[in-house]
Design brief:
Elements: E1 2-11, E2 17-31, E3 38-49, H1 53-59, E4 63-64, E5 67-79, E6 86-96, H2 98-110
Antiparallel strand pairs: 1-2, 1-4, 2-3, 5-6
Length: 114
């Protein structure tokens, strides 16, 4: 399960604005690379939506089936807001609803080819 914790307005390459819901997954233990000690964290992802600001705001606190997963990407630069440090990373976090993916795949597989 993930929980909607916020929303943001964004714009696409054509300058058209749309909203994204910010979702947060459950608590995950992690190991610090610096100290070698465990800590708890939670991953976030954004989901584009067709909702206006009012609907997005009303969805904060809503739970959705699914999880936030780490996806490998081409390396890119990322600036850490708190420190201003720019780092190279090769992943992003995405929302995944496995049931919906399997359902869509079933629909594709069940279509007859003419």
């Amino acid at each position: 399960m993930v929980k909607v914790i916020s929303y943001e307005a964004r714009s696409n390459d054509l300058g058209e604005e749309f909203n994204v819901l910010i979702v947060q997954g459950g608590i995950t233990p992690a190991l610090s690379k610096e100290t070698g000690k465990f800590y708890l964290t939670s991953k976030k992802a954004s989901i584009p939506c067709t909702f206006d600001e009012g609907v997005c705001n009303s969805l904060i606190g809503t739970s959705l089936e699914g999880k936030v997963v780490k996806i490998k990407t081409e390396p890119y630069s990322y600036t850490i807001e708190e420190t201003g440090e720019t780092i190279q990373i090769d992943f992003r976090y995405e929302y995944l609803n496995e049931e919906l993916v399997m359902e869509q795949q079933h629909l594709v597989d069940s279509k007859e080819v003419v």
